[in-house]
Amino acid sequence: MRFPLRVKLILAICLPLLAVYLTVVILDYRRSKQAALAQMENYLTEVTAQEAGVLDEELSSIAQVARSTGQFLQTFAHRESMELERLARANLAAEEKIFGFGIALEAPAAGGAAKPPAPYVCRTADGQGLRSMDITSVSFDYTRSDWYLLPKLLRHPAWTDPYFDEGIGRILMCSYSVPLLRDEEFAGVIVADVSLEHIRRQVRKTHYPGEYRVIISSTGTFIYHPEESFVLAESIFSLAEWHRLPALADLGRVMIAGRQGVLRLPDYQTGRPKWYAFAGVPAAGWSLAVVIPEEEVMAPVRGWLRLQLYSLLAGLGVILIVVMLVSNWITRPLERLAAAVRTVAQGDLDVQVKGIRSRDEIGQLAATFNQMVIDLKANIEATIRETKARQVIERELQVARQIQTSLLPLERPPFPNRPEFSLDAENEPALVMAGDFYDFWLLDDQHLAVVIADVSGKGVPAAMFMAVTRTTLRNFATPSRSPREVLDTANRLIAADNKEMMFVTIFCGHYHIPTGELVFANAGHNPPYLVRQNGRIESLGPSTGPILGVFPEAEYEDAHAVLKPGDLLLLYTDGVTEAQNPDHQYLGEAGLIALLQRLRPESVTTICRAIVEDVNAYRHGEGQDDVTLVALRRSADTIPPT
Amino acid sequence: MCGLHRQRVGDVAARGPLAIACWGLLVNVVVSGAEPGRSAAPPTRTAAPVVLKLHWYPQAQFAGYLMAQDQGFFRAAGLGDAEIRWSTAGERCLDTLTEGDSVFCTGWLCDALVRRGHGEPIVHLTQITQKSAMLLVTRRESGITVPADMTGRRVGLWGGDFDVLPRAFFRKLHVQPEIVPQSNSMVPFLRGAVSVASAMHYNEYHKLLEAGLRPEELRVFTLAEYGLDFPEDGLYCHQRCWPDRADQCAALVRAVQQGWDYALEHEAEALDVVMAYCRRAEVRTSRSHQQWMLRSMAGLIRDRPDGTPAPWGELSESVYQAVGRELLDQGLLHAVPPFAEFHRPLQTQRKGP
Question: Can you give the pTM of this predicted structure?
Fold first, then answer.
């Protein structure tokens, strides 16, 4: 009972279900994750290429204006500041993406007093108007600026990195500058500026939460970053250095090489994976990247997973409830049965299991149990009744036994005032009531009657038959009648009314005390032994007539023997010689003779007692048959009658 | 469009109303300092705040001065609320001494020596860096392996006071490159517009690394290794401050030393302060760059060229003479001014009248 049935049921049903469901969910989760990532990659690749393309067109259109102006000025060598400024204004009016436009002519190599003109026009802060100035008037040497140096040294148009314009623009900007070449000689620079604010406005809205864009220049410097303070201050490489992320620097190198691709990298701050899709903006050598935190891509998948797990839990809850109900439905009758069994075990046989109406195995079990209790109760009541009845019989038998015992001579030692002989007897019935009996009494002063008998059967009928036989013998035995006459008479009387056809074997002897002469008749009884003083043992056989009580016409003979002084006469029943040991071997007459040889010198009382004990020992205490003994010894010092 | 390629936003504070007020005080100080009648008066703790003009934009190259200001070392030295001013692009910082624009000024030794040789009344107070940090950098793929390979190649040099050293390098090694102006960004070099670019180890060299180049992709010519180990950043004043305001000079030098000691020992705090100054001056820079710069400066300040530890602020006469000889050889000087005229050891001045 380590685990109740209910728990076993729950485990057996829920655990396999859980395993199967979890496997399905995990497999599905993996598939969904891959699908979400693939979808995100497609989106990233597409959107990055598209936005990089748009930015490229934007920058190209600005560059185109500067290049056209360069071609124009190459053909028409305007040198008047006013004309150049008008040209710049016209360009600004024509292309609203341009923030500022300037034309700076190179000083002649030969040198001259007057600085060459360098008009610059840009939009006002509100974007409504235009402002102009001649940059030759500023304090620093603009010919050392990148926008001037790059086209001059490279001899081809170039975009600068982003920078802060300290002149009249005073904003963050990038410049596209075109070298003005006249007769293969560098003659100045045409420059068109785009504000980073304009580029910021081009950056599209995001699709995924947490998604953002980054634009870096050809040196990796941030031109656009959602963290505004990064613009111009940080480069992708400075972040990589500060956060010790060589992989981020590698990404930067791939990006400034103008390549396109998608990469998964840990975030430089949180370390959580992010997806970087990048594409070059060839017009300016920039690179645009769209960045998406993986957790945001996975958010719907995780949401789905959460939903699955919740529904799994809910499903498990329902199953649990059902299983508990079912297990209750199964175990409650069992518990009731168990309780009923406990009640029965405590002796209450009036218990009945009620309320189990199902016709299944449990219903059958309950019905069987109920019937069993009823039968058990009936059986026990019957047993009690029988026990009571037997107790009554036993009590009666006890009384009968006492009566039977009282029929035997009680006095011990018998005839204490007759020194001429010693006599003793033993009767140990196999059942409460004995079928054997012995008797002795003085017929007169000189004659002693000795009887031993064995009634057929045992118990009460035998006892009754014994009582009848004894009474008959006592009534007819007189000194004048020989044992033959006594047996003849008793036989006729008993046989006349013996409907049950019971019989008895009887040895009846008249012992003449003064002479030791024994007249006896034997009705089918075991022949007694005469143990002579000198140790010789003689059998007083054979029988002198048939068994008594069956044949009314039976006739018996008298026989004679003489007990010399010291001789011992032993009468016995077949309970002695037919005693069996556990190997079913009889003690036999040889066994009895051996006993007598050994016990011969003892007193009659000791001989009787010892034979009974030896017989009991021989048959290991199992009462098989009545054991009855009578021993008579003629005293050795008997004075012969005068 | 008009600005130099400086990653800087906005202007220095010098043009605000506060700056104008300071300007007035400064003029007052300069004028009073020059007036013979007042020269006998000992410098007082309540003297007008000094102006310290630094030769570039806010960056970790000046962390010591900024920490002296931030930690109140100037005030503790009796200099009041010293005003730190920055230089603008194209401005020659040491010019401001003779123009009476500033009381104290930082600048390079060779530049100051050349000026002194040409009679400008500038006086050296202390030598901040003990070594030259100047490099000429080329890409390994350029094929330039020795300085001689630079002949005929395009080399970018800064203007202002910063071309003395590389020009000395070329003269010394008989290299005849095509010298072109260099902007304050490394973009022309990165785009291949020049083969060789000027770079300070603490600044431009690291900017190249922050533009994605790996050290192994670059070949670096350290000018110091060619006998041109000119100590660079030093602190100067106009000789008219002498000897009337010698105590103030000594106080300033002590405060600056304190500031540098503090900055080098408290890197993170110093970087915080530097970044705050940068933000205020709208200079856009990364903390990683400023960290590199501060660490590079630590080496320049603490070690002699031979690697032995240098006493703070040291300028030995032998180094001075070596630099002078080199400038003489290069024809940048006609005669080396006497060391005692150029450098005023502050310890002796304290014992002065």
Answer: 0.66
Alpha helices (runs of H) in B118-239, residue ranges in sequence order: 164-173, 187-190, 204-209
Average pLDDT over chain A reads 87
Tell me the Cα Rg of chain B.
20
Taken in order B311, B317, B318, B324, the sign of the CA dihedral is positive
In the predicted model, what is the mean pLDDT of residues B135-145? 95
CA atoms within 13 A on the CB side of B130: 20
Facing residue for B212 by CB, picked from A166, A167, A252:
A252
pLDDT at residue B3 in the model: 41
Find the range with the poorest average confidence among B24-28, B103-107, B190-194: B24-28
Structure tokens at A11: 């485990």
Domains defined along chain B, listed by start: 13-131+231-350 (3.40.190.10), 134-226 (3.40.190.10)
Dist. CA B156–CA B150, nearest whole Å: 11
Domains A9-62+203-322 and A77-197 share a fold: yes
- pLDDT value at residue A261: 93
Task: Locate B209 and state its tokens.
Answer: 């690394």
Question: What fold, for A77-197?
Answer: Beta-Lactamase (3.30.450)
Backbone region of residue A454 per phi and psi (left: phi > 0; alpha: psi in -120 to 50; beta: other values):
beta
Q: Write out pLDDT tens, residues B62-90.
A: 999 999 999 999 999 888 878 899 987 76
Q: Which of B4, B10, B210 sits opposite A144 (nearest CB)?
A: B4
DSSP class of A414 = S
Answer whether A284's CB lies under 8 Å from A219's CB.
no
Q: Which CATH architecture has domain A9-62+203-322?
A: 2-Layer Sandwich (3.30)
- B5 and A161 within 8 Å at the Cβ level: the answer is yes
**B206 min Cα distance to partner chain A (Å):** 10
Residue A312 · residue A28 · CB < 8 Å: no
- How far is residue A446's CA from residue A442's CA, in Å, rounded to a whole number? 8
Closest C-alpha to B90, from B13, B188, B5 = B5
Q: A408-634 architecture in CATH?
A: 4-Layer Sandwich (3.60)
Per-domain residue ranges of chain A: 9-62+203-322, 77-197, 408-634
Is this prediction's ipTM beyond 0.95? no
Strands B196-200 vs B154-157: parallel, antiparallel or unpaired: parallel
Say whether pLDDT at B156 is over 90: yes
Is B9–A231 a contact, with Cβ atoms under 8 angstroms apart?
no
**Taking Cα atoms as reference points, which of B234, B283, B87, B17 lies closest to residue A233?**
B283
pLDDT class of A204 with cuts at 50, 70, 90: confident
Residue A443 above 60 pLDDT?
Answer: yes
Burial class (CB in 10 A: 0-12, 13-18, 19+), B239: middle
Find which of A143, A238, A250 to mutate to test the B interface (most B CBs within 10 Å of its CB). Answer: A238
**Residue A419, Cβ neighbours under 10 Å: how many?**
11
Check A153 against B9: CB less than 8 A apart.
no
Query: How close is the nearest chain B Cα to the Cα of A132, in Å?
Result: 12
Contact residues for B14 (Cβ-Cβ < 8 A; gap 6+): B85, B86
Mean pLDDT, chain B, rounded, equals 82
pLDDT for the residue numbered B257? 94
Q: Which residues pair with A221 in a beta bridge?
A: A235
Please tell me the predicted confidence (pLDDT) of residue B35: 35
Taking contacts as CB-CB distances below 8 angstroms, the residues of chain B near A190 are none
CB-nearest to B188 from A146, A168, A242 is: A146
* Amino acid (one-letter) located at A513: I
Q: Minimal CA–CA distance to A628: which of A590, A588, A574?
A: A574
User: In sequence order, which ranges of A170-210 are alpha helices (DSSP H)?
Assistant: 196-202
Q: Of A132, A181, A125, which is closest to residue A154 (Cα–Cα)? A: A181
